[in-house]
Design goal:
There is one protein chain. By secondary structure, the protein is mostly helical. It has three domains: 101 residues, no CATH class; 39 residues; 32 residues. It is built from seven helices and two strands. A hairpin with a 2-residue loop joins strand 1 and strand 2. The radius of gyration is 36 Å and the shape is rod-shaped.
Length: 187
């Protein structure tokens, strides 16, 4: 049964997370990293040989002699998660997720990179709106500091006063309704 990528919750388990030093040494083609890189990939000897495009006998000879093909060691380092490109130092790929240096949670799927352009546009728009709102708040604070009543504020105060008058009138009517039945009962 295959595990869905979403079920992995963008995590890299401890047995999947290869040591960054091992990956760097492997990409530098250090011959003694071959077996450790194979384990970091989770490969059997046959799978490692297949990944290196050599026979099982050749792969086992490399392991026994400690003299593997440097290109094969570099390939296993990449398959174990090393990201070899300039500007990506320390980044690693595990279970199809890209992880920034030092992170084991919150990996990014390739499909999520397409959304980055949209997210950047959203951030730009939010920054623009934030600047507008900040300027408006500063203007309102300056008006309040200068005690200059705003037209809306004056209109709101008039509405509140009108509502207050209506509430008083309704309160008087309610009081009249409450006392009328009571006096009729006692009368």
């Amino acid at each position: 049964m295959a595990v869905e990528p979403a079920a992995l919750d963008k995590l890299s388990s401890a047995d999947d997370w290869a040591d960054a030093d091992l990956l760097s040494a492997g990409f530098a083609a250090h011959p003694l990293t071959l077996r450790k890189l194979q384990r970091a990939c989770g490969f059997t000897d046959q799978q490692a040989a297949d990944a290196c495009l050599v026979s099982l006998r050749t792969y086992r000879r490399w392991c026994a002699t400690g003299k593997p093909d440097p290109t094969a060691v570099r390939l296993l380092a990449i398959l174990a998660g090393f990201v070899p490109w300039s500007g990506w130092h320390g980044w690693e790929v595990h279970r199809g997720y890209l992880f920034p240096p030092g992170y084991t949670r919150g990996g990014i799927l390739p499909s999520e990179f397409f959304a980055l352009v949209f997210y950047r546009q959203q951030v730009s728009e939010y920054q623009r709106l934030h600047a507008q709102l900040k300027a408006r708040v500063q203007l309102l604070e300056a008006q309040l500091a200068g005690h200059q009543p705003l037209a809306r504020e004056v209109a709101l105060q008039a509405r509140v006063q009108a509502l207050g008058v209506q509430v008083q009138a309704l309160g008087a009517e309610l009081a009249g309704l409450v006392t009328t039945p009571e006096s009729a009962v006692h009368g």
